[in-house]
Amino acid sequence: MVAWAAAAFGANDAGTEAVATAFGTLAGAATPQQLATTARAFAKLGTLHLRLMDATADAVLAMDKSDSTADAVLAFKPQDVANIAWAFAKLGCKKKKLFDFLSEVARAHLKQQQQGADAYTPQHMVGSPVSPFH
After folding, report:
1. Count of domains in the chain?
2. Treating both helix axes as pointing N-terminal to C-terminal, what angle do 78-90 and 50-66 enclose, rounded to 10 degrees?
3. pTM beyond cutoff 0.85
4. Which of 1, 21, 24, 74 could be stapled to 55 by a disulfide with Cβ–Cβ 3.0 to 4.6 Å?
């Protein structure tokens, strides 16, 4: 929430650096939404904090290893997938394994959508970041 607030106000200072460092050490315990919101906030600021982005990617990929694909699909909402992908792309963080995993989750979501479940909106599909706080 602190990272999102900093991004909302355009703050990019020592305080955001402290948040990035702290979150980088806690990312492994974060939920998909928390990972997505934090990555999105720093991307909105245009601040590339490599330790934070590496920790975020590692946390996402750890979920892939600890859960079955079906569990990962349930854990990651389309908004989380869209925001994580957008944040990494915006900041130029090329993490092939991360994007492969996000693509796998998105394909599973789209398959569920074809079977009648709500999944992706046009906003998710065109690459606009989706804020959980609007």
Report:
1. 1
2. 150
3. no
4. 24
pLDDT tens digits, 17-66? 777 788 888 898 999 999 999 999 889 888 888 999 999 999 999 987 76
Q: What is the pLDDT of residues 72-86, one digit of tens each?
A: 777 898 899 999 999
Residue 115 counted as domain residue: yes
Amino acid at position 4, single letter: W
Q: Domain residues for 62?
A: 2-126
Q: C-alpha angle 23/54/80, rounded to 5°? A: 70
Considering the domain boundaries, does residue 131 fall inside one?
Answer: no
CB contact at 8 A, 53 and 18: no
Q: Is 134 part of any domain?
A: no
CA distance 22 to 16: 10
Buried b (16+ CB within 10 A) or exposed e, 96-123: eebbebbeebbebbeeeeeeeeebeeee
